[in-house]
Specification:
Oligomer: heterodimer
Radius of gyration of chain B: 13 Å
Mean pLDDT of chain B: 91
Largest sheet of chain A: 6 strands, mixed
Helix content of chain B: under 10%
Largest interface: A-B, 24 and 24 residues
Mean pLDDT of chain A: 92
Low-confidence stretches of chain B: none
Distance between the termini of chain B: 38 Å
Order of helices and strands of chain B: EEEEEEEEEEE
Structural class of chain A: mainly beta
Structural class of chain B: mainly beta
Strand content of chain A: over 45%
Helix content of chain A: under 10%
Strand content of chain B: over 45%
Shape of chain A: globular
Order of helices and strands of chain A: EEEEEEEEEEE
């Protein structure tokens, strides 16, 4: 069964600190992996997207890594800001002959405290 | 640039009442459109997707239906709401089925009482 598991479920860090969120997946065959940021009560917004051949991708203070062999990804946030408080969702897409399906993780809820 | 709209933003409805949520996309043509539901503590669940006008695919059996009367309009409906229909409903669009990067709308919070 295709699944995406994220850890931790929730995390509290002090403003200015770094943190790393984890994502493990069993989706096969694999096409790409994305990280989304979702503010409370809003739709998710894409942060990064990586294909099989990419093992790192940065977007400002966000850096995502991908190990397609172990089927693991991480999202590293550097010098956190209060505005980073949100849920971060890992999404994996399979390769299909037609319509691609996305498998969503349940997200990590991050709270950045002043 | 492309934008996606959803309305209403919030909705409180009694059990057994009908439902109509609307999603529209601007700035692109022939998008793929999607309806998701997000329940508390769970990942987004794909409900319906559409690759063209009048073409609807359902992912899970449920009390809901979808329609696409125009190229950039996607509607989620129900004839009789259930308590279990409560949740956060997200509409999304993508340019094509191969790369499939999806862009999400602001969502509708539905509470069924």
């Amino acid at each position: 069964k295709n699944q995406v598991e994220q850890s931790p479920q929730s995390l509290i860090i002090l403003e200015g600190k770094n943190c790393t969120l984890q994502c493990n997946y069993t989706v096969s065959p694999f096409s790409n992996l994305r990280w989304y940021k979702q503010d409370t009560g809003r739709g998710p917004v894409s942060l990064t997207i990586m294909t099989f051949s990419e093992n790192t991708k940065s977007n400002g203070r966000y850096t995502a890594t991908l190990d397609a062999d172990t089927k693991q990804s991480s999202l590293h946030i550097t010098a956190s800001q209060l505005s980073d408080s949100a849920s971060y969702i890992c999404v994996v897409s399979d390769i299909g002959p037609g319509f691609q399906k996305l498998v969503f993780g349940t997200g990590t809820r991050l709270l950045v405290s002043p | 640039s492309q934008t996606i709209h959803q309305w209403p933003a919030t909705l409180v409805q009694p059990v057994g009442s009908p439902l109509s949520l609307e999603c529209t996309v601007e700035g692109t043509s022939n998008p793929n459109l999607y309806w998701y539901r997000q329940a508390a503590g769970r990942g987004l669940q794909l409900l319906f997707y559409s690759v063209g006008i009048g073409q609807i695919s359902s992912e899970v059996p449920q009390n809901l239906s979808a329609s696409r009367p125009q190229d950039r309009q996607f509607i989620l409906s129900s004839k009789k709401l259930l308590l279990s229909d409560s949740g956060f409903y997200l509409c999304a669009w993508s340019r094509d089925r191969r790369y499939n990067e999806q862009f999400f709308g602001p969502g509708t919070r539905l509470t069924v009482l």
